[in-house]
Design a protein that fits this description.
2 domains; 14 helices; about 15% strand; D-Maltodextrin-Binding Protein, domain 2; about 40% helix; about 400 residues; alpha/beta
C-alpha cells in the first residue's frame, strides 16, 4: 500500500479526524527517524523453526527499509517476558526496559493491561492500520473478550483445525463427543499438549464448548459460585479420554511442534493445530506425507488473532512501532499466508488493498491440506482469559505429570 494512501485513510479514523494528512505524515516521519539505528528486542515464542526463519526475514526487511535491527529473543512461554516487564515495573524502571515488543496472547494481554504494563494506545496510529479487516475479523480488536483499545496490534489470524492421515483414517470424527468415542476405539492414537501450553489449553476450551450446558458463560469471567458445576462435564470427558490417549496419558507432548511430530512419525493418527495452513506447510517442507488433510468440528472451532504489544517502558518504542506496522504490510502478510512459508491467515481486508497487493494473495495456492475459508466453518470466540488460567491450574492439579 502506498504510504500516502495509508495516511489519508488514517486521517478518517475518529482518533485522528482532527489531523491533516500532512501532520500525520510528519508524525510518522518523526517515528521513522527516531527508529533508524535502533535494535528492537522482540520477545516471541521460539519453538517453531519456520516461524523463527520468518522473524529473521522480517528483521532483514526492517533493516533494508528502515535501518531498524531486530533481535528475536526466543521464549518458551510468553509469561517469561511478562515477568521481566513486571519485575522492571516493581523496581521502578520506567524507561530503558529490556523488552521492546512481545508476541502476546490473550491471557498475558489481560494481565499486562490490568497492571499498566503496556504502552499505548498505538495500533490505530500505524499507517497500515486502515488495511486491517476490523469489521470482518472482529478478533483483530478483541482479545479473549477484552477490547484491545489500540494497546496491541494484530498480525495473524488463527483457527483450530484437526489434522489426520487419510492413509490411516478414512472418516474422522466430526464432534467432540465422536472424537472421544474414536479415541476409545483407537487407543494410543490421539493426544494433546500438556497444559498450561496454549494449544493444550485450547483443546480443553474446545471440549468445554462441546460439553457445557451453556457455553455462553465462557464469554464472562469465571464465576466461583457456578464454576465447579459448569466444568464438571470437562473432567468427566477427560477421565474417559485419558486412558485411551498416547502413552495412556502418562506423558504428553509439550507443544504444537511436538504434537505435530507425533503425527509425522505415525505415532498418532489425529493431531490438531491453531494454524489452518500448518499441514500444507509441513507437506511442502517434506515433513508430513501428502496424504495428511485437515477437518473442523461441526458447530465451529476456536479462533483468534495473534498480536504484538509494546511494554510501557520499552527502550525502543519507535522501532517497535515500525516493526508492528511492517507486520501489517501486504507483502509481509502475503508471505506469512504462503503455505510454503507459514500458512497463517491474514488480518487484512483484501478488498482494501491496491490491485498490486491483492494480486500477492490471489497468486497464493492454499495448499493441498488447507481448507477454504468457507470450509473452515464458524469461528468460536475465545473464552474470557480467566477460564484459560483456571482450567489450566485445575488440570495440573488433577492430571499433571512430570516430563
Amino acid at each position: 500500500m502506498h504510504r500516502r494512501t495509508a495516511l489519508r485513510l488514517l486521517a478518517t479514523l475518529p482518533a485522528f479526524a482532527g489531523f491533516s494528512t500532512k501532520a500525520l505524515a510528519a508524525e510518522w516521519d518523526g517515528i521513522l527517524s527516531e527508529a533508524k539505528g535502533q535494535t528492537v528486542y522482540w520477545h516471541a515464542w521460539g519453538g517453531d523453526p519456520k516461524i523463527n526463519d520468518f522473524i529473521t526475514w522480517i528483521g532483514d526487511k526492517a533493516q533494508e527499509r528502515y535501518g531498524v535491527s531486530l533481535e528475536h529473543v526466543k521464549l518458551a512461554a510468553t509469561s517469561d517476558a511478562v515477568a521481566r516487564v513486571l519485575a522492571e515495573q516493581q523496581a521502578g524502571q520506567t524507561e530503558g526496559g529490556a523488552v521492546d515488543l512481545i508476541w502476546i496472547n490473550g491471557e498475558n494481554f489481560a494481565a499486562m493491561k490490568a497492571q499498566g504494563l503496556l504502552y499505548g494506545p498505538f495500533a490505530e496510529a500505524l499507517p497500515n492500520w486502515p488495511l486491517v479487516d476490523v469489521a470482518g475479523k472482529p478478533a483483530t480488536v478483541t482479545d479473549f473478550t477484552l477490547p484491545t483499545e489500540g494497546f496491541e496490534s494484530p498480525w495473524a489470524m488463527a483457527q483450530l483445525v484437526f489434522e489426520y492421515d487419510t492413509a490411516r483414517v478414512q472418516n474422522p470424527p466430526q464432534t467432540i463427543d465422536s472424537l472421544l468415542e474414536w479415541a476409545i476405539e483407537n487407543p494410543g492414537r490421539f493426544t494433546y499438549p500438556q497444559p498450561p501450553d496454549y494449544l493444550g489449553t485450547t483443546f480443553l476450551k474446545q471440549v468445554l464448548y462441546g460439553v457445557m450446558a451453556d457455553p455462553s458463560v465462557l464469554q464472562s469471567p469465571v464465576d466461583d459460585a457456578g464454576y465447579e458445576a459448569q466444568v464438571a462435564p470437562l473432567w468427566a470427558y477427560l477421565d474417559r479420554l485419558h486412558p485411551a490417549l498416547w502413552r495412556q496419558a502418562q506423558a504428553f507432548p509439550q507443544n504444537e511442534p511436538a504434537l505435530g511430530q507425533l503425527l509425522a512419525d505415525g505415532e498418532i493418527d489425529i493431531s490438531f493445530a491453531f494454524n489452518p495452513g500448518r499441514a500444507s506447510a509441513e507437506i511442502a517442507a517434506g515433513t508430513l506425507p501428502n496424504s495428511v488433510r485437515t477437518f473442523v468440528l461441526q458447530g465451529g472451532t476456536i479462533g483468534n488473532a495473534s498480536f504484538v504489544a509494546i511494554p510501557f517502558n520499552a527502550a525502543h518504542r519507535a522501532g517497535a512501532m515500525v516493526m508492528a506496522n511492517l507486520l501489517l504490510d501486504p507483502e509481509v502478510q502475503a508471505r506469512a499466508q504462503d503455505p510454503a512459508i507459514l500458512g497463517f491467515q491474514t488480518v487484512l481486508d483484501l478488498a482494501a488493498l491496491t490491485p498490486e497487493d491483492r494480486a500477492r494473495f490471489d497468486a497464493l495456492e492454499l495448499g493441498i491440506a488447507t481448507l477454504s475459508p468457507a470450509d473452515l466453518g464458524p469461528v468460536l470466540l475465545e473464552p474470557h482469559a480467566s477460564w484459560m488460567t483456571r482450567i489450566a491450574q485445575d488440570w495440573t492439579a488433577r492430571y499433571g505429570v512430570a516430563q
